[in-house]
Amino acid sequence: MQASDLMTRIAARRDDVVDLTQQLVRIPTVNPPGDAYTPCAELIGERLRKRGFDVTYERAVGTPGDTDRHPRTNVVARIAGRGPGPCVHFNGHIDVVEPGAGWTRDPYGAQIEDGRIYGRGTCDMKGGLAAAIVAVEAILDHGVPFNGALEISGTVDEESGGYGGVGHLAEKGFFSKPRVNHVIIPEPLNVDRVCIGHRGVWWAEVETHGRIAHGSMPFLGDCAVRHMGAFLDRLERDLIPDLVTRRTEMPVAPEGARQSTLNVNSIHGGLREDFEGLPSALVPDSCRMVLDRRFLIEEPMDRVKAEVIALLDQLKAERPGFRYDINEIMAFEPTLTDADAPVVRAVADAVAAEFGRPAELICSPGTYDQKHVARIGKLKDCIAYGPGILDLAHQPDEYIVIDDMVASMKVMASAALRLLAA
Length: 422
Ligand SMILES: [Zn+2]
Prior knowledge:
The mean pLDDT is 96. It is elongated, with a radius of gyration of 24 Å. The chain has helices spanning 3-11, 14-25, 37-49, 122-141, 163-171, 224-243, 301-318, 342-355, 370-375, 402-419; strands at 54-59, 73-80, 87-93, 112-113, 116-118, 149-155, 182-185, 193-198, 200-209, 261-269, 286-295, 323-332, 335-336, 360-364, 382-384, 399-401. The strands form 4 sheets. A 6-stranded mixed sheet has the order 1-2-6-3-7-15, sandwiched between helices. Strands 10-11-9-12 form a 4-stranded antiparallel sheet, with helices on one face. It has a 3-stranded antiparallel sheet with strand order 4-5-16. Strand 4 (112-113) and strand 5 form a beta hairpin. 33% of the residues lie in helices and 23% in strands. It has 2 domains: 3-197 and 334-419, Aminopeptidase; 200-332, Alpha-Beta Plaits (2-Layer Sandwich), CATH 3.30.70.360. Bound molecules: zinc ion. The site of zinc ion (ZN) has 6 residues, from helix 4.
């Protein structure tokens, strides 16, 4: 079969990819806590088993959140081609973030309207995963010859760091040579762009300490919230203005994320947020703040950490009673795949063929599972490419454009065949 024939056949699978996306979205795999992972993994696994794939379910026992009630169930499916050769692996996460407020449609209804499917996870990233599955099925059903192997995985917990998902599978060798050579992750980065990496991330929790006392006599205690206020002031004055001046050579999109950033994720001190009735008159003895620091490939991670700790130590030296603890929550280095790497070339060429213009190479402001593939799997040939619109991820009324899914199916099939030429 000619490649152009395959593209026509793929376009005819529009209803199939819509149907599969709807099925996936209707399983509310909300993380946290990690609901319904097993039925979602089984939907994918049993579908592919019927088409001749070897299917493995891999529960990430012992990883964060894994319990018998909320098992971290991943699925990996593999099918061999005609002769020896490399393996192209499509990886999609099956977890979604909670719907949140502001929806005008059922978040799990997968309702179709104006050429779009609406629902939590349509864009990020069940639509992309469905597109990869149907694209691979098209290659198989039409008997297009390829060498090596094709793999598809549905993995959990990407939204909470990916430890029980791609991180766990990478520890088990699922994302290393010789098993796998090229990885495509259909995250929502827009259908005509190829994402070759991401900025680094450092999450930390800072706690300031004080001394409890009656609120009518605060001079008898020491207010932990005021100490935290002093730290916030240092961040505002000394760190954040400096971060905005640091620019990266990485093609991060959107443009605003080409600088270093710091988000104060949360802050809490004093009475519990869910207290009822009137507040009790207390001086808070603890205040906690979660920092979400995104950094550039030009910034060494130890410097990123040290400059925050230096501000805290300065306060300790200067401010009476200032005491703190800092705990790291998560840290990942930036990742960047070579623009000339085989998977980048294959997908970029396929995008150019589909859209008649060059693919834009970008990097993501946030991390995704590529970090585990690079760090644990030691596999550099990995990108993100998928049909969703980046800005819609995690938003109310999230949707996927059906035409984009179909276009991405052509790109993914064509890229896989370029990498597995028989
Ligand atoms: Zn995602």
